[in-house]
Design brief:
Ribosomal Protein L25, Chain P; 2 domains
Length: 232
């Protein structure tokens, strides 16, 4: 059964947003009496019956609801966005499908972008959890300076990693702590600077290598997400 999204499943009646209503009624040709499945991104899944098949404001009655617990161990990707944000769209989609619990955008010394369309990003995350049949929407944080972000972290509670093109960096396999949430820093094109790397290292981050090849920012995020999720 195809998933639809509504941010609030606390009540027994639900009205779908206009875009979801159009897809349900006009595209899938659902009618009053048909059942569809909703998720809210907070771990809840509900089977609902259509009571009003209006293509602009489809109304539903909740028939059955189930709650799914979030992962005990999650992955937080903190990344410097690329100038061409289409590449970040792709990264958000793929990393969400594989399994990321939180995203943060970083403004670094070599950053090419300092503004983010959060509404656009949120829509991508919603579509991704629907497509991959997940029940928890990743947390999405707006852009923050690298220095401020590092100072905000309680690194003793996290497995803190920084992807850095340095020949002395260890691999993910050598640094992943299976008992802690992982926070992974991904730099911009041109990488983190020496000053930024030192700041991270001084705050208990471990630098890691993602292989011999130089990866683009979005590729590095997807590659690392896939590897780390093999442990969880």
């Amino acid at each position: 059964m195809q998933l639809f999204f509504h941010p609030n499943l606390e009540n027994n009646t639900v009205e779908l947003p206009e875009d979801e209503s159009k897809h349900c009624i006009r595209v899938l040709r659902k009618k009053a009496g048909d059942e569809i499945m909703l998720i809210d991104g907070k771990g809840n899944k509900a089977i609902c019956k259509i009571t009003d098949d209006n293509p602009k404001k489809c109304k539903l009655e909740v028939v059955e609801k189930v709650h799914f617990h979030a992962r005990e161990i999650g992955l937080h990707i903190a990344i410097a966005p690329t100038k061409n944000f289409d590449r970040m769209d792709w990264m958000l989609e793929k990393c969400t499908e594989i399994g990321v619990s939180e995203f943060t955008f970083l403004e670094t010394e070599n950053s090419e972008r300092n503004k983010i369309n959060m509404e656009r990003c949120e829509k991508i995350l919603i579509q991704s959890i629907k497509q991959s049949k997940q029940y928890w929407l990743p947390k999405l944080n707006n852009i923050i300076s690298f220095k401020q972000f590092i100072s905000n972290q309680n690194t003793t509670e996290l497995n803190c990693l920084m992807a850095w093109c340095n020949e002395n960096s260890l691999t993910i396999n050598e640094t992943t702590d299976l008992k802690k949430h992982t926070l992974l820093l991904i730099g911009p094109e041109g990488d983190f600077t020496e000053v930024e790397a030192k700041l991270a290292i001084d705050n208990n981050f471990k630098t890691i290598s993602l292989g011999k090849n130089i990866l683009r920012t979005e590729t590095a995020a997807v590659y690392a997400t896939a590897i780390i999720n093999n442990y969880y």
